[in-house]
Amino acid sequence: MTMDRRVRRTRQAVQRALVDLTLEKGYEAVTVTDLINRADVGRSTFYAHFTDKQDVLLSNIAEIDFLHRPPSTSGELFAFSLPMLEHAAEQQRLVKALLGRRGGGVLVARGEQMLATMIRDELTTRGAPASPSLDLVVICVAGAFMALLRQWVDGDFTATPTDLDTAFRTAVIPGVAALLGGQ
Amino acid sequence: MTMDRRVRRTRQAVQRALVDLTLEKGYEAVTVTDLINRADVGRSTFYAHFTDKQDVLLSNIAEIDFLHRPPSTSGELFAFSLPMLEHAAEQQRLVKALLGRRGGGVLVARGEQMLATMIRDELTTRGAPASPSLDLVVICVAGAFMALLRQWVDGDFTATPTDLDTAFRTAVIPGVAALLGGQ
DNA sequence: TTCGTTATTGAACAGCATGTTCAAGAAGGA
DNA sequence: TCCTTCTTGAACATGCTGTTCAATAACGAA
Is the pLDDT of residue B41 over 70? Predict the structure, then answer.
């Protein structure tokens, strides 16, 4: 499981280089050559570890660990929201580089999918019957949350996690609650 | 105002080439050389009209005209929804190429901004006091709608416009209504 | 410390995309 | 018709990609 120390050093250096360079130039503008230079790693070494620029991006997913939180099924609806936002606030650099406007769109898409799955599970657990139309509502909720997150990140984290959480709940909880109550 | 016929022909050929190629390979994978070949246009001609691949993309915005609908301020809340979706359903090819997963993310971002502005105006017109927290709710609503649209497009337009409209309203109208009613 | 294994290096390479230039020719429209 | 404007194709410098290879360096287990 624990890799060779050299491997660890190399991979980390490249991953950090991607974050740094993305913050500086935006993900699109970052080239493999940039990564190599910034990470101070041989070109052949890079391709021994990653296939792509995007491969480096995806390898960073594990580090955005607030996307993997266990869905706290008990308690209030969408309890994931506030803790997730608070966690994001603590990882501003990383989150901004990877999820921001200047970041690679891939992670946003993945995040939205993971969120949607999480939300769908929560709703069916609470008694909503699985159906195509439920899925559509789930997309709305996930889209709302991710849009909020993106906006926050691109606006350099003005507003507090609580502000965002409140807005999110204001917008979607009444609708979802009506859906659940009506069963 | 009306351009030289040659100019019209050239620009159209390139724009169409972008749509076609995006549907085939995805926007990212399309190169300027591809556009030139498909449009059957000289390289120097291309650069006489566009600066970029992205420039071609943006020049297509005007064609997605349902993003410019006048906000029908009267009648029900978010009346733009169903007509917009119906219009999108009629322009599947174009919409899928430009707004889909394989399309350039730029237009999605623009669409979300325009939507947010439209929604904000509608809410303030109806008496919601302008404030930062209102803006956050607006982001949620716009994000929900765009997420729905993206999902629809990438799923090849299964579901009807009415289905989507219903889901959208189910998810966000109760929350927004509470916000308006509470004033 | 030793020693076999594994990772890194740097340079070189072919391939391809970009964006610019220019003189010659074709098409437009008044 | 005739002047203007657009298009053409080719050539070019530049920069990025992804691969290869033999030499060297670092690792970690015994």
Answer: yes
Alpha-carbon distance of A102 to B98, in angstroms, equals 19
Tell me which nucleotides of strand C come within 7 A of a protein CB. Answer: 6-12, 16-23, 27-29
Q: Which two tokens stand for residue A80?
A: 């994931």
> Could you tell me the residue range of the domain that residue A72 belongs to?
63-181
A109 plus A155 within the same structural domain: yes
Residue count (chain A): 183
- Answer yes or no: do B49 and B66 share one domain: no
Give the tokens for residue B140: 């949620």
Q: Where are the beta strands (DSSP E) in B93-140?
A: none
- The answer to whether residues A37 and A104 belong to one domain is no
| Distances in whole angstroms, Cα of residue B155 to Cα of each of A53, A118, A136, A171, B88 | 27, 20, 12, 26, 14
Q: Do A167 and B143 touch (CB under 8 A)?
A: no
Split into its structural domains, chain A has a count of 2
Determine the distance between B41 (CA) and D1 (C1') in angstroms. 29
| Distance of C1' in C7 from CA in A34, Å | 21
pLDDT tens-digit map of B88-139: 999 999 999 999 999 988 999 999 999 999 999 999 999 999 999 999 999 9
